Amino acid sequence: MVAAKRKPTETEESDIFAPCSFSSLGLHTQLCEQLEERLGFKAPTLVQAQAIPVILSGRHVLVNAATGTGKTVAYLAPVIHHLHLYQPRIQRSDGTFALVLVPTRELCLQVHEILHKVLHRFHWIVPGYVMGGENRSKEKARLRKGISILVATPGRLLDHLKNTASFVHTNLRWIIFDEADRILELGFGKEIEEILDLLGSRQHGSAAKNVAVTSKYEFPRQNLLLSATLNEKVNHLAKMSLEKPVMIGMPEKKRQSIALHEHLGSDADDDDTQTMNTTGSVSEDYRLPAQLTQKYVKVDFHYSLLSEFQFKPSSGPDAEPKHRFVNCKTFRLHGNMEQEDRRTAFETFKREKSALLLSTDVCARGLDFPKVKCIIQYDSPGEATEYVHRVGRTARLGERGDSLLFLQPIEMDYLKELEKHGVSLTEFPLLKILDSFPLYGHKHVRKFVSIDGHPWVMSLQKALEAFTDKPDMKTLAKNAFCSWVRAYTAHRGELKRIFMVKKLHLGHVAKSFALKDQPSLVGTVKINPAYSRAMAVHVCGALKAGTVRISELMREHERSRSLKEHFCGVFKGKIYHIGEKVFSSCMRL
Ligand SMILES: Nc1ncnc2c1ncn2[C@@H]1O[C@H](COP(=O)(O)OP(=O)(O)OP(=O)(O)O)[C@@H](O)[C@H]1O
């Protein structure tokens, strides 16, 4: 992700904001003042204008609106409004009234930060969070004191529900699933079911008790599900947790496919539930900001060593100094990092005016880094939903944004896959751009026929290969290559037809990692083979028998990669011979 300043245009603003005020939606004046003073929100976005009155009314809601359209405040504002009006005034000892479930730690911190700002004047409403990677005892202490609005990742929440006796949730009124589909994709389905059972908020089954009967505030439960993309699993969660939900921002076709008819109330077809075309939809399936410019590039490309690599772009005299290839700060963020490093990278990148973030899908959802100018996808995203969320980190709330997707010639069918969801990309004129770069001694030379033979590319490749030739760098590059190839096999269903490792020209892939030769894919997994085999047999057997939940082993997408690597090492030593069955089990993580 590359951050830089961009301004929205006039016309885009009218597509984003509703022609009304927050107070006209029924929110308390003091809360409206806080939204303006603390967050700078003068008017509601379209999705906020649609969702806030419905959520205020107490209905269960399913919101499906484009990335960056303001869904967070759409659900937080009504909750704060009600809590602010509770009589007698709520106290910390009343425990938790609202629970916001999110898929990642960074999103947890982000939602908490927004709460913290908006609740500034309402000091008796206490925000807090619990999430994986944090100190449990400190969290227990905070829960004991009381948290009115709790943001949580599912695994850690379940842990506290089971093991923290002082966690009071008898007054719980709201359960909110932000990025509902991602929570389920990460394999938290069983945890969610357990959480709903423990909280007595499941719509079917004996455990259901939708009013907090022991509560001094007797309000019916209200559950909310939100995401820019929805899928079959969300349908299941919706059935499990929502009662007669109002669908916001969803075209009729999708409402039918979500198949919630049995739950839809008679007023589900009211005006306020109609299709929200104005939120920047370009598709009846997936919603993308209209001002987002999406491009793809059709070449094997270079692996740029962003923080250290120096390059002398033209083949001029040796005296000419080398320059850093990327002239801004670079950050990295992925699930295998230590929690503290993860937090620092997340918070620092957020503050930087001009910076580059290298990240895995841990950043794909919900994160709201300000002024991100461009999303570059070097690894293909897989499901179209993932594409939508990744590019959704830019072009937020009417800002302009660009995205660039790297595709190899054999992968061009991926564009058709995206088109099925109304997502269309134009080809990035790479050769033209390269031709515009200065070349030593050839001011206006152009008309190179191929990218590979372009002097600029050749000299860059040479410099990269020289840089990667150092032993440490070479090991890094080889590992990166192997991981990349392994991850390539992770595509499911239709996508397996497009991303076929057998069709890959591995020599070219190696070149894109600045390697002169293709590393061997055999024997690169450093796991004791005997242990691996035993482990694999155990996991496969247990999976088959249904006695182990793979989600217990894996919490995040990145870890599923190590498991895939593990199986690769175990089964054949070669990724492209991996057993289909095991693989599909891995893919359900
Ligand atoms: N009414 C508003 N006025 C001005 N800015 C707003 C308003 N509502 C939200 N924003 C800003 O818009 C940006 C996007 O909001 P938010 O992160 O809630 O979007 P989202 O719909 O949840 O996106 P995603 O689907 O990617 O999670 C944030 O920077 C937020 O501060």
Short description:
RNA helicase. This protein has 589 residues and is α/β, with parallel strands linked by helices.
* Beta-strand residue fraction: 5-15%
Question: Portion of residues in helices?
Answer: 25-40%
Question: Hetero groups bound?
Answer: adenosine-5'-triphosphate
Query: Can you tell me the CATH superfamily of the largest domain?
Result: P-loop containing nucleotide triphosphate hydrolases
Question: Rounded to an integer, what's the Rg over CA atoms?
Answer: 25 Å
State the low-pLDDT regions, or none: 2-11, 205-209, 259-284, 300-304, 523-532, 546-562, 564-589
Number of strands: 16
Q: Enter the CATH topology name of the largest domain.
A: Rossmann fold
- Lateral arrangement of strands in the main beta sheet: 4-5-3-6-7-2-8
- Principal-axes geometry comes out as elongated
In terms of structural class, how would the helical and strand content be classed? alpha/beta
| CATH architecture descriptor text of the largest domain | 3-Layer(aba) Sandwich
Overall residue-averaged pLDDT value: 77
The span between the termini is: 26 Å
Structure description:
- Helix 11 (339-351) links the parallel strand 12 (329-333) and strand 13.
- Residues 2-11, 205-209, 259-284, 300-304, 523-532, 546-562 and 564-589 have low confidence and may be disordered.
- The protein has helices at 10-16, 29-39, 46-56, 71-85, 105-118, 136-145, 154-163, 180-198, 232-241, 252-258, 339-351, 384-391, 413-419, 430-435, 455-468, 471-488, 495-498, 506-512, 529-545, 550-553, 557-571, 580-587, and strands at 2-3, 61-64, 98-101, 127-130, 149-152, 174-178, 222-227, 246-248, 292-297, 310-311, 323-324, 329-333, 355-359, 372-377, 401-406, 426-427.
- It folds into 2 domains: 22-204 and 217-262, 3-Layer(aba) Sandwich (Rossmann fold); 299-513, P-loop containing nucleotide triphosphate hydrolases (Rossmann fold, 3-Layer(aba) Sandwich), CATH 3.40.50.300.
- By secondary structure, the chain is an alpha/beta fold.
- Helix 7 runs parallel beside helix 8 and helix 21 (557-571) packs antiparallel against helix 22.
- Adenosine-5'-triphosphate binds next to helix 4.
